[in-house]
């Protein structure tokens, strides 16, 4: 697509890559995550339907997917707008909004938020995990799925003329389902036509990112323009992580601010702390991968907004960057993570 080459596509139109500034590569500004509701443990059932209050904030932090209201980020447009202004004041320039088909993407709200805050917002095309695929999606061929994705980037998504600027987050489970496999292949086909960035949500198993890259490579994807999300909850073994890093995609540590004891979606996983994330990022930099790391918070529930006592979209800029400096990551390296690497990734080829 010659008209997109060398540009970045936001919900307000094309911009120069140099305009992006500090970029969070994986966030949600409006979505419905009810597909991932987990009933509370025995004796706590009443908490699932209670409003968010100060007295249950700690419980919510530990059980974010067990309160139905907490999963409806789409109800918080005013609070998100306030958060984006705070993010801008802290030095933020761009948000990559990873809400895809299946979790209530809202292109009109994204455009409104961008207009009202001055933050560049880049919307995601494509499909989330199999559990959100309707029968219509499951019935599509790889070619038909690719056509849908290309159309969302070139013409507009969800019946609007507002265009997506990235494919993803493309949802994958473990084990990968047939429908997700087709979507991955369609993503590769669409990317090869568009020269656009791609971002993947891997399954919760350390082999999942390897499987995904293999499928995409075989389907013709450009791995150098692909981000593998959620590395902080996916590959813990250092040797295996470095083996994966050699494949050439971007490694995204995008759960900054998420610290809880019991991870309902995969109880075997010990969710790392922010300090542990920083040390892992420093290790990857020391191993020579500073050009292939991006960071974010993946805010997708209400309790992570400042309105509800959460850390908000500016947590990395306000709290993580100072700690990175203390831990020996230079400002130059931090600028790569926040500015240069997202710029390289988001620019159409």
From TrEMBL:
UniProt cofactor(s): a divalent metal cation
Keyword list, A-Z: Hydrolase, Metal-binding
Source taxon at top rank: Eukaryota
Pfam families documented for this protein: PTE
InterPro entries cross-referenced by the UniProt entry: Metal_Hydrolase, Phosphotriesterase
Reactions mediated catalytically: N-acetyltaurine + H2O = taurine + acetate; N-acetyl-L-leucine + H2O = L-leucine + acetate; N-acetyl-L-valine + H2O = L-valine + acetate; N-acetyl-L-methionine + H2O = L-methionine + acetate
Protein family per UniProt: Belongs to the metallo-dependent hydrolases superfamily. Phosphotriesterase family.
Annotated protein name in UniProt: N-acetyltaurine hydrolase
């Amino acid at each position: 697509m010659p008209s997109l080459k060398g540009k970045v596509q936001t919900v307000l139109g094309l911009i120069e890559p140099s305009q992006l500034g500090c970029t969070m590569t994986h966030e949600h500004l409006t979505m419905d995550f009810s597909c991932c509701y987990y009933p509370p443990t025995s004796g706590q059932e009443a908490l699932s339907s209670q409003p968010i209050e100060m007295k249950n904030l700690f419980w919510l932090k530990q059980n974010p997917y067990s309160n139905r209201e907490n999963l409806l980020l789409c109800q918080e447009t005013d609070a998100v707008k306030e958060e984006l202004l705070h993010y801008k004041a802290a030095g933020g320039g761009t948000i990559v909004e990873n809400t895809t088909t299946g979790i209530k993407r809202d292109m009109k709200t994204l455009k409104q938020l961008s207009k009202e805050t001055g933050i560049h917002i880049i919307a995601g095309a494509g499909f989330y995990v199999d559990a959100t695929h309707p029968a219509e999606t499951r019935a599509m061929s790889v070619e038909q799925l690719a056509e849908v994705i290309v159309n969302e980037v070139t013409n507009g998504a969800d019946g609007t003329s507002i265009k997506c600027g990235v494919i993803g987050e493309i949802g994958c489970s473990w084990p990968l389902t047939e429908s997700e496999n087709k979507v991955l292949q369609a993503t590769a086909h669409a990317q090869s036509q568009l020269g656009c960035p791609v971002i993947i949500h891997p399954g919760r198993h350390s082999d999942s990112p390897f499987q995904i890259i293999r499928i995409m490579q075989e389907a013709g994807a450009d791995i150098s323009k692909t981000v593998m999300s959620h590395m902080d909850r996916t590959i813990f073994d250092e040797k295996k992580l470095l083996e994966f890093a050699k494949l050439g995609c971007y490694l995204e540590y995008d759960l900054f601010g998420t610290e809880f004891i019991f991870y309902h979606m995969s109880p075997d996983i010990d969710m790392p702390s922010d300090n542990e994330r920083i040390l892992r990022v420093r290790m990857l930099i020391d191993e020579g991968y500073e050009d292939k790391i991006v960071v974010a918070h993946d805010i997708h529930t209400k309790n992570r907004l400042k309105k509800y006592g959460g850390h908000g979209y500016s947590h990395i800029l306000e709290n993580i960057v100072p700690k990175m400096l203390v831990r020996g990551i230079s400002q130059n390296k931090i600028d790569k993570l926040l500015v240069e690497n997202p710029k390289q990734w988001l620019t159409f080829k």
